[in-house]
Design goal:
Strand order of the largest sheet: 1-2-10-7-6-3
Number of strands: 12
Oligomer: single chain
Distance between the termini: 30 Å
């Protein structure tokens, strides 16, 4: 399945399908992709062969060759199709303050 361009969201975490993971990205020791700023719960990707990589700018990527799921203590688990994903954090815009900020989870 081609996940390129596909978007999946769990809480404030957004996974965007990409064709590949940057070659210079380094594999992380765990599969946590985000921690909640309020509750400190974690968004973690689980599954056979799942790995999380981080590039030089701190952007995270997920390799899920057989698919997997993203889990969080306060959200329903979401199934991921096989593929590669870039991790982002959803932003909200305050029109009165004219600023964008990460959504707090």
């Amino acid at each position: 399945m081609d996940t390129n361009g596909r978007q999946i969201q769990q809480g404030d975490v957004l996974l965007r399908g990409v064709s590949s993971i940057p070659k210079m990205a380094k594999k992380k020791a765990d599969t946590v992709v985000a921690y909640g700023e309020v509750t400190f719960h974690k968004h973690e990707v689980l599954g056979e062969g799942v790995a999380v990589y981080e590039d030089e700018q701190g952007t995270l990527y997920v390799s899920a060759p057989h698919g997997g799921s993203i889990v969080h203590e306060e959200h329903k688990a979401i199934t991921l199709p096989p593929g590669n994903f870039k991790i982002g954090i959803v932003k909200e815009f305050d029109h009165f303050k004219e600023e964008a900020k990460n959504v707090a989870d």
